[in-house]
Write a structure and sequence with these properties.
With about 425 residues, the protein is an alpha/beta fold. It is about 35% helix and about 15% strand. It is globular and about 65 Å long.
């Protein structure tokens, strides 16, 4: 079986990381998998770049400009919206022609257009689409939050000026998606049970099959290592307890940095002794902006795609925290747990599927900084840390191993190849 995995980026972002790991898992389990990306940045022979960088840049800018106009020339929500108006036609590529299954992942920002997706389906090849967010089941948004319009029909979009209208951009893109999905079968895969449940509520996907398969991780790479050596490598001091926060862009409001700052203020006030032995380690873009936000010392690191350095960062920490306001199945929690680092996060999305409350970490009440502080203190000072760490590693090995995830996808590929491609 030959599978072509399609994703906008090769290395940047959670979807790219997940797609790359799946490619490796499939190739290690008898499937010939390649990855097609907009920007190829490595020398991996199983990854193919589209080329035509200037043309793709123009498509990206043109699509952003059109969205910018719909936002009345405001940058608010500019990257929370996608229309799939522009994209490359991949159906003529040899990698496409030789594939038995086309596996879409995150294909926005000029990678594929809705017109291209229709052409892929018209080719007759079976299509599997892994959802890394809710966009395939909505009109234009990647994160619905409290909006439930996608359960019926998108319109009057909260992201558009004035709350949109009955015939706004979200309604028009919704109709284009519906026109495609009413004619063709696609096997949708959500990375978490939570997202699968949300997707099934969308009238766009009502007649489509929606599966739930988690992302995978290589536990030979992400594993527990000596903490002292890791801190020495990173130039971090010994004798401190480190609270780690990781995000591609730490100022992204959806990642919940505000709640971590407030939780740490609470810890400093209720447990002043922590001021002498606790620090916050922030990894990601704009991390320097957080230097003066905490009562505790702050150590900042730029976002890195160097896996060995990333493993060292996780192993340098005592607890990992992700107070996101919306999440699917975060790779960062999986990575931290694989390194034996207990995690704390809000009860939202797929986070409670990864963190088993008070067994391998702590699931705090949603948007509750006091409970977030309680969870951090519990992990650091009130529990059997070694047992918690071992439970975290065990959970990853049992649920997210390459073999287990690859076998689930192979079964979905076989089902997709067996069903009738067209509805009409």
């Amino acid at each position: 079986m030959r599978v072509l995995i399609v994703n906008t980026s090769e290395m940047t972002g959670g979807a790219a990381i997940a797609a790359n790991r799946l490619k490796s898992a499939l190739n290690n389990n008898g499937v010939k998998a390649k990855m097609l990306v907009g920007d190829k940045v490595t020398d991996d022979i199983t990854v193919v770049g589209l080329g035509h960088r200037l043309l793709r840049k123009w498509r990206f800018l043109y699509e952003r400009w059109c969205i910018f106009c719909h936002l009345h020339f405001s940058r608010n929500h500019l990257f929370e919206i996608d229309t799939a108006q522009c994209g490359s036609d991949i159906t003529r590529l040899p990698e496409f022609k030789e594939a038995d299954v086309i596996h879409l992942h995150w294909i926005n920002q000029g990678m594929l257009s809705l017109r291209t997706i229709r052409r892929i389906l018209e080719s007759g090849k079976p299509v599997v689409w892994t959802m890394h967010d809710i966009w395939p089941a909505t009109g234009i948004c990647h994160c619905a939050l409290t909006c439930r319009r996608f359960e019926h029909q998108c319109a009057n979009c909260r992201l558009l000026p004035g709350g949109g209208s009955r015939h706004d951009l979200s309604a028009r893109v919704w109709r284009r998606k519906k026109n495609i999905l009413s004619r063709y079968h696609i096997a949708f895969v959500a990375c978490s049970k939570w997202l699968a449940g949300e997707a099934r509520k969308s009238t766009l996907l009502r007649e489509q099959k929606v599966f739930s398969v988690p992302n995978t991780i290589d536990t030979h790479v992400f594993c527990r290592k000596d903490r002292t050596e890791s801190r020495t490598l990173l130039g971090l001091p010994e004798g401190m307890k480190f609270i780690l926060f990781v995000s591609q862009r730490v100022t992204n409001e959806l990642k919940g940095m505000k709640f971590l700052v407030d939780a740490c203020h609470t810890l400093a006030k209720e447990h002043p002794e922590m001021l002498d032995n606790t620090a916050v380690l922030v990894l990601g873009g704009h991390s320097d902006e957080m230097a003066g936000a905490f009562d505790f010392p702050v150590y900042t690191l730029d976002y890195t795609s160097d896996v060995r350095r990333l493993v060292a960062i996780y192993n340098a920490a005592d607890v990992f925290v992700l107070p996101s306001l919306s999440e699917n199945l975060p790779n960062t929690i999986m990575e931290a747990m694989a390194c034996g680092v207990p995690c704390v996060g809000f009860n939202v999305g797929g986070i409670p599927e990864e963190i088993d409350h008070r067994h391998n970490g702590y699931v705090a009440k949603y948007r509750d900084e006091a409970d977030l502080a309680k969870g951090l203190y519990w992990v650091l000072y009130e529990t059997d840390y070694e047992e918690l760490s071992a439970n975290a590693q065990r959970k990853v090995a049992q649920c997210y191993s390459q073999n287990a995830v690859a076998m689930k996808y192979i079964d979905i590929y076989n089902q997709a190849m067996a069903i009738k491609r067209y509805k009409l």
